[in-house]
Design goal:
Layout lengths: L3 E10 L7 E9 L7 E6 L5 E5 L4 E4 L7 E2 L10 E6 L5 E5 L5 E5 L7 E5 L7 E6 L5 E8 L2 E7 L7 E2 L10 E2 L8 E3 L5 E4 L1 E2 L3 E5 L7 E4 L8 E8 L5 E7 L10 E4 L7 E2 L10 E4 L5 E5 L2 E5 L7 E4 L5 E4 L5 E5 L5 E8 L1
Length: about 350
């Protein structure tokens, strides 16, 4: 039996015009994993999938008390940084190998079927996001200065490369730190953040039929840029990042939009350091995580407050519940309970 081995309660007052108060309880979970976990997907408060290095995938069906290793055979030398799950039986992963392979399971990870391999060598898949049960987007780093985006309309069983994507610039990349450099809303809006030589937001308003780039004030550099994007509703979104190799580097680490991504503004008070993932718990409350700590915002990402130095790469919020699951290095997984007091 795995046990909860650490419970760290961090409580604090969040002050705003509405006098909101929250407590965040971090519960570190015992897992058999030693992998660097870069993707996590919580379907509800019980079913949680996570994946990462050494071809590893893990599944919990009891809220993280017990974890079942579900590795993809023959993939020990690659990493699964892109992950999506539908339930305790069905899940999909993309790897970061040069041929960009994807695998599907429909029996809880007992067996995996390869359902995609890139026809072009050089693929490196960073993120995977579905807007509903059937429509999804997967993104690789650009190839030959062309944005490399796949789309599925049949629940991930077949993927087609979009041919109408714009050119990237030399040195512009997407980051595979948390499986969240894509946001795909049910209404058809898609937002993809970039970094490297340029930190931009690539936007489609029509399920990928047309695209446009928007420049942002976010920092740039070989290991810097925008790493994660999330929307709390059709109008309000936030993107976070920074410099992975220099987490304390000063600069723009967070941007926000209030007009559905038509314009992006620099946060007034930044997260305390580089952050690789951001998620919304409601229309106002955002949570950001990175390898050196976590922050929150209660004003739609305009101002950020440091919570704790516990470091994680990826986060997933349980829909309809104030619960977050975090994943990080050396197989670390935590459950965060957020309470309004």
């Amino acid at each position: 039996m795995n046990k909860i081995i650490l419970s760290l309660i961090v409580s604090f007052m969040l002050i705003s015009c509405s006098e909101k108060q929250y407590s965040f309880e971090f519960i570190e979970l015992d897992t058999p994993a030693k992998s660097s976990l870069r993707a996590i997907h919580a379907l509800d408060e019980n079913i949680v999938w996570t994946s990462g290095s050494q071809g590893q995938v893990y599944l919990s069906v009891d809220g993280g008390h017990n974890w079942n290793p579900r590795p993809v055979p023959g993939c020990e030398d690659t990493e699964f940084r892109s992950l999506h799950a539908w339930d305790a039986e069905s899940a999909l992963v993309f790897d970061i190998s040069p041929l960009g392979k994807a695998f599907m399971t429909t029996d809880g990870g007992v067996k995996w079927e390869q359902i995609y391999s890139s026809p072009i060598e050089g693929a490196f898949f960073n993120s995977l996001k579905f807007s509903n049960e059937f429509q999804g987007i997967a993104i690789s780093d650009p190839i030959d200065d062309q944005m490399f985006i796949l789309k599925t309309d049949d629940g991930g069983w077949s993927w087609n490369r979009l041919e109408n994507t714009p050119l990237s610039v030399d040195g512009e990349i997407n980051f595979a730190a948390s499986n969240t450099c894509i946001e795909y809303l049910e209404s058809g809006e898609i937002y993809i953040v970039t970094g490297g030589s340029r930190s931009r937001v690539l936007t489609s308003k029509d399920h990928g039929n047309s695209w446009a780039f928007l420049d942002t004030p976010a920092m740039t550099g070989a290991s810097a840029g925008l790493f994660s994007v999330n929307f709390s509703n059709s109008s309000t979104g936030v993107a976070v990042g920074g410099d992975f190799n220099d987490p304390d580097r000063e600069g723009c680490r967070a941007i926000f939009t209030e007009d559905g991504g038509d314009s992006w503004n620099q946060a007034e008070k930044m997260p305390a350091a580089y952050r690789s993932c951001v998620i919304a718990l409601n229309d106002d409350l955002f949570f950001a995580a990175g390898k050196t700590g976590c922050d929150y915002s209660i004003d739609q990402a305009k101002n950020w407050v440091f919570i704790d130095s516990a470091g994680y790469y990826a986060a997933s919020a349980v829909k309809g519940k104030n619960i977050i699951f975090l994943a990080g290095s050396e197989g670390r997984v935590s459950k965060v309970i957020v309470q309004r007091e």
